[in-house]
Amino acid sequence: MTVTAIQLTLVSWTFPLGELFSERPLLYIDHPIHLHRIMLAAELGRDGLTTGYDPFFGAGSPAGMAWNPAAKLPAMLAIIGADPVVAWKLYTFLAAVLAPGLLVAAGALLRLPLHLTRWAALLGTLLWWASMFRWFHTAGMVSFVFASYIAVTYLAGLSRFAEKEGRAFRQTLMLGTSGGIAALIHPLFPFIVLPGGLSLLWINRKRFTITSLTLLCLAVPALVVGINWFWLRPTFFDPPYIGTSYGIHQARVDVSMLWVEAIGLWKGNYHGSRVYPLILGALLVAGWARWRGDRLPPLLTAFTVGGVALIVYAAFGAAIPGAAGLTQPNRFAVSGYLLLAFPAAHGLSLGIRNRWHLMPRWPARIVTLLLLALVAVNLNEVRREISSRPIGHYGKVPPEVEEMGPKSRFILDWLATSTTPQARVLFETSHARIHDRGHMAGLLAYRSGREFIGGPYVFQHYAGFWDHTLFGRDIREHTSESLLDHFRRYNIGWIVAHHPITITHLDTLPGVRKVAEFEGLAFYHTDAGGGYFLQGSGRVRERSINRLVLDELRGSSILISYHYMQGLRCTPSCVVRAVRVGEDPTPFIQLVDPPESVVLTWRGE
């Protein structure tokens, strides 16, 4: 309780309690994209759906829980009636408050001495505030941080599995259920647990019976998959949508990450922490003690193996085919250091309490002073992190909740006064979060009711637009004819651009005229858009999440500028087909012999 109380006090300093139930959202970096996904999932959930059709992005794309990898729990809160803004803030706040206390729970499960658990909890708290975890959390990657802390407790629970055969079935249920919920929180949870879990299995190999080993290796994974099947199936086994991705985050192969980050450097693509030298120094003490005859508890060896494996995977994992896109390996380094908290706590306990007789007195005292100095340095790092002064921070400078920025407000006003739903907005998103330091496209489209080509995130969709990359290639590689042809195909009526290369190119494009500028953003109008009907004719009377209403249809074959998604249903009944158009890897929707008015919705197979 003490650890949680301290964390609550610190978190409340940077995230004022009065903001928990306010209307102001979290808008820094990835927070807006998660909030947008929660809003979509809530709309679908009220109709009893976990998947649906989103006509507002990518000329039609899937939405729902399966495409919401890191915000499923707050989405569930929103489905049962909570305001999405409040649901996400509550989840973010509680995940922050609870995380360090999970190391105390892990220490209890491991039956470790109280002083050792306290040192581990201190290291866990320091990592939360003064490492990449803090950046992740304030940038919106809340669930990955929370899942990393849950993984420590889960490994501790796994260590108890082999103790008594009579409890195997009950522990199987507990491990399977808790693992399933953790994977629901973040799908990379199993990857965080895997190396430490395998090490624990090896250490306890002589204690397992055939029954307990079978339960652990088959029943537990089956429970985890079963709990998550509602999103695993459409994501990996029966995808209803043919799409593509054009970029991957956190997937560098760089051996120098191992030592540059280990010494605590945060520079460029290296994201070290001053907690890392403290952890590694304490591990050296524990290693020295073991070499001189001290006995490191075997379970802590498993945590050491698991932590080191994750750190090595972070540096080299992207070289494994498929691993880069699936796991974004670089993010696992800080999770590896977290797993080292308990082995390092053993070294801290030996070094700082100076109760070991394995080194001469004066060297031992020097080691003690060095460890205390590193603890003091990192406590100061926490002090700096909770400060709102304009100094270096790992995460967002407090407070975490702010008003929507001027660029976003201007865009919303411009969309409301200068555009209509009769054509789409070509919206240039930004890897560098140009729009008020956040990926705002999702919220802007949601609040304006306009369809965007571009967003809701970078690197998504052939029908996407980010940092002068448009329709699968650099805008400079398109001829004027090619761009105007795409504008007709995707019914582009307006453009919002930010990159100088894009603006320079659009300024010379025939049929496109600049109509406004604001703080580096350029706004254009074009008459190139050819309407939403590529074959036949009609009118888009209404669009909303999982609902597209077409009327005044004329022709035996209607081809519309919306992407096909397997499971789309036409009411009244008509044939819905997938037709490829141009270079787009995702086919478009064709209606065969439709009645004059139809409603398209996704209901699955």
Descriptive account of the structure:
This protein is an alpha+beta fold. The chain has three domains: 2-386, no CATH class; 406-526; 535-602. Helices cover 49% and strands 15% of the residues. It has helices at 2-14, 31-45, 72-79, 84-98, 101-110, 114-129, 132-138, 142-159, 168-185, 189-203, 210-237, 257-260, 275-291, 298-316, 323-327, 332-339, 341-353, 361-386, 406-418, 441-448, 480-489, 500-507, and strands at residues 51-54, 61-64, 266-267, 270-271, 424-427, 452-453, 465-466, 469-470, 473-474, 492-497, 512-518, 521-526, 533-544, 547-563, 568-571, 575-579, 588-592, 598-602. The strands form five sheets. Strands 13, 14, 15, 16, 17 and 18 form a six-stranded antiparallel sheet that branches. A five-stranded mixed sheet has the order 6-5-10-12-11, with helices on one face. Helix 5 packs antiparallel against helix 6 (114-129) and helix 17 packs across helix 18 (361-386). The two termini are 49 Å apart.
Q: Using DSSP, what is the number of strands?
A: 18
- State the shape: globular
The largest pleated sheet is described as: 6 strands, antiparallel
Total domain modules: 3
**Percent of residues in β-strands:** 15-25%
**How much helical structure, as a percent, in the residues?**
40-55%
**Radius of gyration, rounded?**
27 Å
- Mean pLDDT over the full residue set: 91
Quote the distance from N terminus to C terminus: 49 Å
User: Structural class from helices and strands?
Assistant: alpha+beta
